Structures are given as structure tokens and as C-alpha cells.
């Protein structure tokens, strides 16, 4: 969770920095008919990706538009485990989004084995299909931070394929923002025919103006 005790002290954007970037991200998240529903937020280590994602999650929660979030952490027992990614997000959706609480609860009640299924099946059954039942609801955003920090390149690509294909099967009131370092295999996936033309890239490297604001 974005405000989990496990994550304190949390990285946050310094006041009055990255304001335009955060505004652009928030406006994209709130669009009812964007040209893309998946965003790749990328930058090198130390560029502020996690701080941006934490700050944005708080803003979206205040607007009632945060669906769920997951912050990967390398080698962490649970936060480094991709098998709990969509289960955790579905749990947050059921807690915070009233029109999803019943459908998601019913899926788990009638098929408890879903919690041990593949990443693709968990996304499909716990999130995509329940959301498909309410295509005209206001969009909600799911944030996944540190994709490159979960175990294995194959897993990174499996997550990206599952997210992409969820939109080919259903019309969904969802937005995904995926933050990571610009690792070669992740970049190649976003530039492949699977993603080409259907996502928005967003470079988070900070400007000198932000640095000036921080120091002065």
C-alpha cells in the first residue's frame, strides 16, 4: 500500500518541485477518453520515480481515483514477489471502490484457487472481468512502481503482457502507470508490436528548475 508502515520513511516529492509533471500525470489519469490507457514512467536510479509515484498515489486517493498500487522492492519477502501483485491490487480495489467490492468478493468466494493461479489469470478474473461489468464508471488508476525490482526479466515481461492483453479483451475504466528503470528488455517490450502505439512514455528525469527550487 502507498501508506504502508513497511514503507516509512516514504520518498516524497519536495514541496513545489515536479509540479507540472505531477499535474500532467494526474490529468492523464482523470481523462475519460485518453488515447492511451497505459503509461510507462521511466528514469535512472535516483531520478525520483518512487517519490513521484508515492505523491501521485496520495493525490489520486484524495480525488477518489486511486484503484490500487504496488511498490516492488528488490529481495523483499513480499514486495519482491510478483505472484502477489494483482491479488494485492484486487484487495485494494475491493476495499476502496464500492462498485467492485461485490464482484471481486464473489470471484474469490466461488473460486478460492484463483489466489494461486498465474499472473495473467489473476488479472483477468480478479480485476479485468469485474471492471468490465461497469465500463461507464469514472476511470480509476493502478500504480505499479519498481517493476524492474521484482524477480526475473521473464516475470517483468509476463506482467507487461498481462496488462496489455487485459485491454484487448475488455473495455475497462482503468489506467495503469508502470514505473521502472529503462532496462533494455522493458524498453524492447514497450517498443514491440505488442505495445507500439498504445502506451504513453513519460521520462521523469528532473529539470534544473526543480533542483533550484529545492536548494533555494
**H/E element order:** HEHEHHHEHEHEH
Tell me the Rg in angstroms. 17 Å
Low-confidence runs? none
State the strand order across the main sheet: 2-3-4-1-5
Average per-residue pLDDT, rounded, comes to 86
Number of strands: 5
What is the beta-strand fraction?
Answer: 5-15%
Secondary structure: helix percent? 40-55%
Structural class determined from secondary elements: alpha/beta
The shape is globular
Query: Span from first to last CA?
Result: 33 Å
Largest sheet: 5 strands, parallel
Number of helices: 8
InterPro entries: NACHT_NTPase, NPHP3-like_N, P-loop_NTPase
Organism: Rhodocollybia butyracea
Protein name: NACHT domain-containing protein
Keywords: Repeat
Structure description:
With 216 residues, this protein is of the alpha/beta class. 45% of the residues lie in helices and 13% in strands. It is built from eight helices and five strands. It has helices at 19-30, 49-62, 85-96, 98-110, 119-132, 153-169, 184-191, 208-215, and strands at 38-42, 66-71, 140-145, 174-180, 199-203. It has a five-stranded parallel β-sheet with strand order 2-3-4-1-5. α6 links the parallel β3 and β4 (174-180). The longest helix has 17 residues, at 153-169.
Brief description of this entry?
The chain has 216 residues and is α/β, with parallel strands linked by helices. Helices cover 45% and strands 13% of the residues. Helix 1 crosses helix 2 (49-62) and helix 4 (98-110) crosses helix 5.
What attributes does this structure have?
216 residues; alpha/beta; five-stranded parallel beta sheet; 8 helices; 5 strands; 45% helix; globular; repeat; NPHP3-like_N; NACHT_NTPase; P-loop_NTPase
Amino acid at each position: 500500500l502507498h501508506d504502508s508502515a513497511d514503507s516509512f520513511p516514504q520518498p516524497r516529492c519536495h514541496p513545489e518541485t515536479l509540479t507540472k509533471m505531477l499535474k500532467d500525470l494526474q490529468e492523464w489519469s482523470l481523462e475519460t477518453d485518453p488515447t492511451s490507457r497505459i503509461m510507462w514512467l521511466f528514469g535512472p536510479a535516483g531520478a525520483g520515480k518512487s517519490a513521484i509515484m508515492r505523491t501521485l498515489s496520495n493525490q489520486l486517493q484524495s480525488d477518489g481515483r486511486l484503484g490500487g498500487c504496488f511498490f516492488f522492492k528488490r529481495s523483499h519477502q513480499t514486495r519482491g514477489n510478483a505472484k502477489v501483485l494483482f491479488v494485492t491490487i484486487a484487495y485494494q480495489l475491493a476495499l476502496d471502490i464500492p462498485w467492485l467490492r461485490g464482484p471481486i468478493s464473489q470471484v474469490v468466494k466461488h473460486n478460492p484457487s484463483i489466489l494461486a493461479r498465474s499472473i495473467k489469470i489473476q488479472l483477468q478474473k480478479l480485476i479485468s472481468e469485474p471492471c468490465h461489468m461497469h465500463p461507464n464508471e469514472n476511470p480509476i488508476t493502478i500504480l505499479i512502481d519498481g517493476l524492474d525490482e521484482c524477480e526475473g526479466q521473464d516475470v517483468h515481461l509476463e506482467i507487461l503482457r498481462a496488462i496489455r492483453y487485459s485491454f484487448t479483451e475488455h473495455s475497462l475504466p482503468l489506467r495503469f502507470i508502470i514505473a521502472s528503470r529503462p532496462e533494455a528488455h522493458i524498453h524492447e517490450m514497450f517498443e514491440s508490436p505488442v505495445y507500439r502505439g498504445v502506451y504513453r512514455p513519460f521520462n521523469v528525469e528532473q529539470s534544473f528548475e526543480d533542483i533550484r527550487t529545492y536548494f533555494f
